[in-house]
Amino acid sequence: MIVKPRIRGFVCITAHPVGCTAKVQREIEVAKAARQSGGPKKVLVIGASTGYGLSSRIAAAFGSDAATLGVFYERPSLKGKPASAGWYNSAAFESAAHTSGLYAKSINGDAFSTEVKEQTIDMIKADLGQVDLVIYSLASPRRTDPASGETYRSCLKPIGGTYTNRTLDTDKAQVSDITIDAATKQEAEDTVKVMGGEDWELWMQALAQAGVVAQGAKTVAYSYIGPEITWPVYTNGTIGAAKKDVERAAAAITAQYDCDAYVSVNKAVVTQASSAIPVVPLYISILFKIMKSKGTHEDCIEQTVRLFNQRLYGGDLQLDESGRIRIDDWEMEPEIQAAVQEIWPEISSETLIELSDFTGYQKNFLNLFGFAIEGVDYDVEVEVDVPVPSIS
Q1: d(CA 380, CA 16)
Q2: pLDDT for residue 347
Q3: C-alpha span between 6 and 202 (Å, rounded)
């Protein structure tokens, strides 16, 4: 069938298999170009199909020849309809890894569940013995607690009061003001249950108790801080509270298990998760224009390669005062943030194209789903029923 993008709000409900493959291949080439010795060799990526999780899997496999096991929850093609982008990404990655002689298997299921944890442990025992790096990169709107069976839902709200600022309707390319009501105490607590560090701890506990974590292993969870203009809805809001709990979990994991747990604070990029956060897409559009002009712009794969090569396995973690790895250092340079602050009051629907890189934002958004990729003919029919080799 011929597949075209169908966008609803901040989600594209279609994905292009050939485009996703081309995007994965581009990331593979970036990782290959930065190859170096001393990286991880047996890697578990929880949340491995999109964004930083996918880039972590690619960087490990094609940057240091690592065997990788990926866990994700994606939709295969059903009744002739396209699969999700994450499914196509994973199919492309596995095929490329196998062609290069690399171990790569995947598990498709609810990573919050006890069953998927047990399935993962069984596969590590059978195929890898132990892992030396665990990447935790889950982003989900809901989580069912495996112990209680209760389902929690996250929200994107400020804490302590309403918040008003400029935001961007990416469908209509319109800048307007948005007011977001404060979260209730229950909403904030539920968001921590979904997006906080509890499930990361449960994963590391299960892996350690099963004896599948190598001595001296590392584990990393991803986070974001961003500029003050986004703090009320992010860093000081419900998601920020969850991210603080991830930092708590990192300390607990390091203290209890034979591994070093880190929180990596990453740069703002276009992901399915960031697209949903009010104010953030407008900030990203401005940021991209500034960082591209300075030659310091990075997407997920460039960030991840720098994290692996220079920080995790480069001997220079550069931890901040809270013990976090700050790979967002280029974004947060005072010169960059001052330029954002100068543009922010001037941005409007009329000046959006001139003062920001909204065109680049739109392209990156479409790229997430395999669209707007150079060299792909979107008027040609494609096979949408594409298997993930280790699953299908």
Answers
A1: 11
A2: 94
A3: 37
Q: Which two tokens stand for residue 111?
A: 């990573």
With 0-12 / 13-18 / 19 or more C-beta atoms within 10 angstroms meaning exposed / middle / buried, residue 181 is exposed
CATH 3.40.50.720 correct for 7-145+195-278+296-333: yes
Residues facing residue 166 across a β-bridge? 177
| Count, residues in the chain | 392
- At 112, give phi and psi (nearest 5°): -75, -15
Predicted local distance difference test score (pLDDT) of residue 275? 80
Q: Hey, which residues are catalytic here?
A: 234
Tens digit of each residue's pLDDT (9 = 90 or more) over 22-71: 999 999 999 999 998 899 999 999 999 999 999 999 999 999 999 999 99
- pLDDT score at 392: 67
Q: Which residue in this structure is represented by tokens 């399915």? A: 272
Tell me which residues of the chain have a pLDDT lower than 50: none
Q: What is the pLDDT of residue 169?
A: 87
Q: What is the residue-wise DSSP string for 205-268? A: HHHHHTT-EEEEEEEEEEE----GGGTTTTTTBHHHHHHHHHHHHHHHHHHHSSEEEEEEEPPP
Kindly report the backbone phi and psi dihedral angles of residue 159, in degrees, each rounded to the nearest multiple of 5, phi listed first.
-115, 130
Rounded distance between C-alpha atoms, residue 310 and residue 297, angstroms: 17
| pLDDT tens digit sequence for 246-278 | 999 999 999 999 899 999 999 999 987 788 788
Q: Are 382 and 6 in contact (CB under 8 A)?
A: no
Structural element, H or E, at residue 137: none
Q: Which two three-digit tokens encode residue 64?
A: 């240091």
Q: What is the pLDDT of residue 183?
A: 96
**Which one, of 136, 133, 130, lies nearest residue 212 by Cα?**
130
* 317-352 residues labelled b (16+ CB within 10 A) or e (exposed): beeeeeebbbbbebbeeeebbebbeebbeebeeeeb
Instruction: Give the dihedral of Cα atoms 328, 334, 337, 339; nearest 10 deg.
Output: -140
Interatomic CA distance for residues 372 and 14, integer angstroms: 13
Those residues whose C-beta lies under 8 Å from the C-beta of residue 76, and which sit 6 or more positions away, are 83, 87, 108, 385, 388, 392
